[in-house]
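Re: export button greyed out
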Amino acid sequence: MATKVKTVIRPAGIRRKTYLIAIVEGLWVTFRHLMKNWIGNLFGQRAKTDIATLSYPEEKMAYPERNRGLHRLMKREDGEVRCVACMMCPTVCPAHCITIVPEESPDGRIEKRPRIFEIDELRCVVCGLCVEACPCDAIRMDTGVHALPTIRRSDAILDKEALLSRGDKSTATQGGVGSFWREKVKA
Amino acid sequence: MLDTLFNFFEQHLPYGSTAFNAVGGLAKSGFFVFMFVMPLAGILTWMERRQSAMMQDRVGPNRANIGPLRLWGIPHFLADALKMIFKEDFVPPLANKLLFGLAPILAVAPVLIASAIIPFGAPLCYGRISEVVPAGTCAAPIDLQAAHMDAGLLFYFAIASLAVYGTLDPGAMVNAQGDMPWQWGIVGIPHVVAFVLFLTAAIAESKRTPFDIPEGESEIIGYFVEYSGMRFGMFYLGEFIEIITTSALMITVFFGGWRFPGAESLAASLPNGLFVLLSIVVWSAKIFLFAAFQLLIRWSLPRFRADQLLRLGWQRLLPISIANVVLAAGWLLLRR
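Workaround output, generated via the alternate export path:
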């Protein structure tokens, strides 16, 4: 195999050869950035500078709307848990991190409700399949909060109360609008 | 109270005696090293990180604090020193223990010794610190310079063009310059050339980017790999002390030392002690600006290759400095 010879063309002319002007130009660029950022930072105007860093625990970047964060359980109009213990989410969960023990609901219109609803956040792979599987908008992952660091592993298992504490009333109508929803939405 | 102190000094340490010179020398070098060079070198370690961050649109270290005292993160240098002291001091088993231990000392000590020749303030008038001392009336001046040496500046060839001063004693050099910026050593064609050469040589000497070939921290595995803890810290600190020393030399030779516009009239109206303090502050501010400039260069330019550095040093800087000596000689002849 013949060796390829690549001829490097050196810059010509005293201006290019000494690099002195290029050095001064380069120093001017970095000096401009230094001054803008330093003065802006000194007077608490960081937003006007070029600094991209966030001071993390104090400043946080807003997550995108569809970010999957910590789970939460939604509530009905009367404040009770929306979950009907249908077992869709523990069935679909690839990490087997959801434990539901159902019990009979005292409300006659609702068949079941969860007596125990636990999510092991250490096992959770944050895939969001439980949210997709839920037929009644009971479980969501839209809190925008990470799984919290804990000292003991058991602290990472969130029970029903912890999941409900982040919960909110669902915007969905209780019981849905039925099979004639197209007509109802039009009206 | 101050007067009793001065009386005590005058009684037991008469001006010009051996004891006076010894105590004065110790006090001056002690002040210079421990009150100025060491703290400034420490702060420079923080400043380098903070300044480079700002140049690169980052924030830099700003968290270290002593209680509520955060000071933009300046305590970082204390935290760094603490960390280095408590780190494991590892000595490679096959290393020569003597040479291994000697190297970090050799990185710091010569720079500190070299800094002894630098005049860091206006002359102090012994025994008349609280009075206004008109120019030329002081019988017992103390030069704020740890050592007078005529050979003190034989560091670089570029310096030889400074024959315009007729001396190599830095103290006399500062005295030869005036208060106003256009009376400083930088004014004149051979002077500017000498300054650029000296600046280049100074940065190369402190072996920092763009001349950090021996270290090359990210690519070649430099000699720092073997050092840990405070031994590494001494190399690191030595670099910053070199920045301070070279900055101080450049200020002494080219930028009027402690002199500033209006110094002469202030000297005639302020108490001597206060004026000397002011001159030290001005001198420190100049050093600070020069150190910041050296940091700016370090974080702007890419590293030279070894052959590029050799070509720059031997084929460019050396001939230019020799030519500059000739030019300076001609300049002197014309001015006579």
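Residues 150-164 of chain B have pLDDT under 50 and may be disordered. The button fix ships in the next patch.
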